[in-house]
Amino acid sequence: QVRLVESGGGLAQPGGSLRLSCAASGFTFSNYAMKWFRQVPGKERGLVAAITGAGGGTNYADSVKGRFTIFRDNVKNTVYLQMNSLKPEDTAVYYCSAAGPYDYWGQGTQVTVSS
């Protein structure tokens, strides 16, 4: 059974940091690119960051470049999103996704940036 379980969301102050984790199981993790998306009510889900299966390639939305870092541990079958210098506009539900022969999604974790 495929599972993607996000954790690490919560409340952060502007300028603060959070690290999201997404633990994967049920598929060959290293064969899949992993992505983080986010969504706010009334808007489409948008790509935040992506990383290749081996971890050698990454890309980011312009809005998070220089502040967020995606990385993965293919031994622990986990992908991370380190979020620094958080802004109120980063408030959203964050989802991890596995992109490969099939696409898989996690259930999402809420991130709220507010003073």
Plain-language structure description:
It is a single chain. By secondary structure, the protein is mainly beta. The protein has strands at residues 3-7, 10-12, 18-25, 33-39, 46-51, 58-60, 68-73, 78-83, 92-99, 103-105, 109-113. Strands 2, 4, 5, 6, 9, 10 and 11 form a seven-stranded mixed β-sheet that branches. Strands 1-3-8-7 form a four-stranded antiparallel β-sheet, with no helix packed on it.
Shape: globular
Count up the helices: 0
Distance between the termini: 40 Å
The portion of residues forming beta strands comes to over 45%
Give the total of beta strands. Answer: 11
Structural class: mainly beta
N-to-C SSE string, H for helix and E for strand: EEEEEEEEEEE
Average pLDDT metric: 96
Rg over CA atoms, rounded to whole Å, is 13 Å
Q: What percentage of residues falls in helices of 4 or more residues? A: under 10%
Largest sheet: 7 strands, mixed
Unreliable segments of 5+ consecutive residues: none
Short description:
This protein has no helices and eleven strands.
Relevant terms:
115 residues; seven-stranded mixed β-sheet
